Amino acid sequence: EEEEEEEDNDQQDDDDKLDDGDQMMTAEEKKKAQKQKQKAKHCTVLVELLQKNRRQKDKTNFLYVAFHVYKVSPEMQGTCLDRNFFMTNRPVGRSGTYKAQRGVWRKLRLDPGNYIIVGSTYRPNAPGEFFIRIFSKTSNTLGVQDFSCSSGYRPVMATPISPEDQTSIEKTFVNKAGPDDRLDVNGIMKLLNSVIEKDYHLPLETCRQIIFGEDTEGRSTLSREQVENLLTDLRTLQSIFNQFDEDSSGTMSPFELSLALEAVGLQCDNKVVQLLSERFVAGEQDLPFHGFVSCVTRLRKLFALFDSQTNQEVKDKGINAWLLQFLTL
Fold it and tell me: Acidic residues composition bias: which ranges (predicted)?
């Protein structure tokens, strides 16, 4: 017991000495010491954003570019960082003003943690290729932000079907429907293309995909109610397509497609969006409207099939692997 008391007294003496040392330090010295401790915890990094393929023969055509660095909290890692994330979080670092030059860079001091670097152009949605170089004093793990695709798709019935569309449906069913009062793929294609503008006409293959995405009870035809819902959905997709076709080109870039799918309620990572764009461009440079309809139809079906899977091995691989496997078929 005496030895324990002596040890306690020694510890108390040490604490008293530390307290005396702190008291002997001036406020300025304390502040400097604290700053040194904080500085030791930081990591110094140099981030550079470089534009690719902007030099053409004797001229250059650099975009105005910059980058911003955001800290990602542990609970946000592996999730889709949406508009709300960037509206509620301030960047912890940035390159400065947008500049029309090959590269922009900035030296940053960051706390240990996870960060995302977002390169951007001054003009919204300007297409361009770039790569990022990072130099640091300590080793770091780098990668592309990834997340699991998700579906929150809901058929939108914002307004009831218009009288004009209702009349067209009634007339088509009277003239084209079979004895079971259902329309086949040819009847559906003629109906849809008779009520929507020429620029949005759907080819036969897209109409087949639409029917495949519905519950046809094995008959490959649609009922009157299904056709009414289909036409309303199509009007909604047309509105979303126009909203995100910002350059009014009549087609969508992969970036525009990603935003449009999110508006529909389908969140997909970059690999899936790129594969969709390549799969449904139909020989054009970018995605036309009927390709967008095919994307939504195929995704809805694949999400539904994945949800109905009972194979645990398939579930363990995840929805992203499932989509990448079957979107190529």
Answer: 1-22
**In a shared domain, residues 139 and 217:** no
Contact 132, 50 (CB under 8 A): yes
22 within a domain of the structure (yes/no): no
Contact 101, 95 (CB under 8 A): no
Q: For 39-50, how does the pLDDT look when each residue is reduced to its tens digit (9 = 90+)? A: 556 788 999 999
65 and 140 fall within a common domain = yes
User: Distance between CA 97 and CA 71 in Å, rounded?
Assistant: 20
CA distances from 111 to 8, 108, 114, 117, 132 (A): 37, 10, 9, 15, 20
In a domain, 225, yes or no: yes
Q: Is residue 264 a contact partner of residue 153, using CB atoms and an 8 Å limit?
A: yes
What pLDDT digit, counting tens, does each position of 231-289 carry?
999 999 999 999 988 778 888 888 788 889 988 888 888 888 888 888 887 667 788 99
The total number of structural domains in the chain stands at: 2
Domain boundary among 91, 116, 147: 147
| Domain carrying residue 246 | 163-326
Nearest-angstrom CA–CA distance, 135 and 162 = 60
Largest CA distance in the chain: 107
**Residue 188 and residue 211 in contact, taking contact as beta carbons nearer than 8 Å:** yes
pTM over 0.85: no
